[in-house]
Amino acid sequence: MHRMMKKRINIGFIGSGWAQVAQAPAFSLMEEVDLAAVASPTERNRQKFMERFGITEGFADWRDMLEQCDLDLVCVTTPPWLHEPMVGGVLESGRGVLCEKPFALTVEEAERMNALASRSPGFALIDHQLRFHPSVRSMKQMIDSGEIGRVYEVRAVVNLASRNRIDMPWSWWSDAARGGGALRAIGSHLIDLNRFLVGEISEVCCNLSTSISQRPDSTMPGRCLPVTSDDSFAMFMKFGPSSIALGASSLMHVTTVGSYTWFSLEVVGSLKTIRLDGAGRLWEIANSEAKGGRSLIDAPRWKQVEPILPWDELVLQAKIKLSSLAVHGIFAVGFAFLAHRIVKALKSGDPIVLQDAANFRDGLCIQKVMQAGLDSDREKRWVKV
Question: Going from the N-terminus, what domains does the chain have, and what CATH number goes with each?
Answer without folding.
Answer: 9-129+315-357 (3.40.50.720), 131-308+368-384 (3.30.360.10)
